[in-house]
Design goal:
single chain; DNA Polymerase III, Chain A, domain 2; 3 domains; 18% helix; nine-stranded antiparallel sheet; 8 helices; alpha+beta; ten-stranded antiparallel sheet
Length: 390
């Protein structure tokens, strides 16, 4: 029915990303597997699809007998990884018995008919663009911490992309934190109707986690395409796709306060280090419902970072440049630290208002302007405070 020979490392490199699109719910056997289509000369097309997201790629193979079948993806990868040789032969007979051989070792698995595999969506897409992989990777990595894991509002469980001819913007929000990254950049337009780029879509956080495994820190471009319901990522020879989140995204510009009476500048590493020390003893809950928090106290040109819990206490003092305002404000340590971990080292500009108003954190351009540097990429984080006990 099918006989095919692969280079072991090539097969492994294709199976690993495929696992991100394989179902783990143990409901439909076909979507726990990977479709191996060996009906084209010299190429085997591998497909995985869990009904929400999927992957397809073609890899070089020596096809001795043309055919197609479904093999359990997780088991296949586990087997191939421990095979002793550099080449792997997979043979599937008429009874759907799959024999996997390499060197002097062999395994047997039960395969499924290729016809059992669910119909995948059309992977064309009328609208799209190309973007450098390093830029996509950087922006998604910077906002991923603010993607909600289990919010009842679907839009908050993904990242919002806004694509214009000369600007690339990615936003995430989990109601406690807002993250915005944008850069003026001329993107290659791949719209089929030659219209200007003006795209808005929301990608599930779980999908972005899988795509980040594919993209590299390189100038090589990836392509993003849109159908009516799906978003498609083409990275090298791999096509990964997912359903879009069909919801209205929050008007994030309205969340940000229009003015802040207090501004301060400090080194990102100083505040990040202080929060990391506080995180060693902060607790989400004490005595059932009493929360511990990290407290920021701004007085003149010193920012005190303190926390107290049943595990102990921490005090850090950080030198800052401020406009002279004073404020005491409390935060969930993890929420604030996640934002600081996404900031580059260097000077930050932090804006504050009242103990109950969120603060904004962004890169300070002052040093770069003085040095004559021009870094167009911008990021802004907005973090809501906690109400502290008196």
């Amino acid at each position: 029915m099918m006989t095919v020979v692969f280079e072991k490392e090539i097969l492994i490199s294709a199976l690993i990303p495929a696992l991100g699109a394989v179902s783990t719910r143990n409901t439909v056997p076909a979507i726990e597997g990977i479709l191996m289509d060996c009906r084209n000369e010299g190429k085997c097309i591998l497909s995985a699809y869990d009904m929400d997201k999927g992957m397809r790629t073609a890899i070089n193979a020596e096809i001795e007998e043309y055919g197609a079948c479904i093999i359990h993806a997780q088991k296949l990868l586990q087997i191939v990884r421990v095979m002793p040789g550099d080449r792997v032969r997979i043979t599937v007979d008429d009874t759907l018995k799959a024999v996997i051989e390499s060197g002097r070792s062999s395994f047997e698995l039960k395969a499924l008919n290729a016809s059992d595999f669910p119909l995948m969506p059309e992977l064309g897409g009328d609208y799209g663009f190309r973007v450098p992989q390093h830029l996509f990777r950087d922006f998604v990595s910077r906002v991923s911490f603010a993607i909600s894991q289990n919010d009842q509002r679907p839009a908050f469980c993904g990242a919002f992309f806004k694509i214009l001819p000369n600007k690339f913007t990615v936003v995430s929000c989990d109601t406690n934190r807002l993250a915005i990254c944008e850069e003026p950049i001329l993107l290659e337009n791949t719209n089929r109707d030659s219209s200007d780029l003006d795209l808005e879509f929301i990608v599930p956080g779980k999908t972005l986690n899988e795509v980040l495994r594919l993209v590299k820190d390189t100038e090589d471009e990836m392509e993003v395409r849109l159908t009516r319901k799906h978003v498609i990522f083409r990275v090298g020879e791999i096509t990964f796709f997912s359903k879009q989140i069909e919801a209205e995204y929050v008007d994030y510009n309205r969340i940000l306060p229009k003015g802040y009476p207090i501004e301060l500048r400090l080194q990102a590493a100083d505040l990040r280090g202080a929060l990391e020390r506080c995180s060693l003893i902060t607790e989400d809950r004490l005595a059932g419902s009493i929360r511990s928090y990290v407290k920021l106290t701004l007085e003149e040109n010193v920012l005190r970072v303190t926390t107290v819990s049943s595990a102990g206490s921490v005090l850090d003092e950080i030198p800052v440049e401020s406009n002279g305002g004073s404020l005491i404000i409390g935060f969930n340590c993890k929420f604030l630290l996640d934002a600081l971990k996404s900031c580059d080292d260097g000077e930050l500009l932090i804006r504050m208002s009242t103990p109950l108003m969120g603060i904004s954190i962004e890169k300070s351009d002052r040093r770069e302007e003085e040095a004559g540097k021009d870094d167009n990429a911008k990021y802004l984080y907005f973090v809501m405070p906690l109400k502290m006990n008196n």
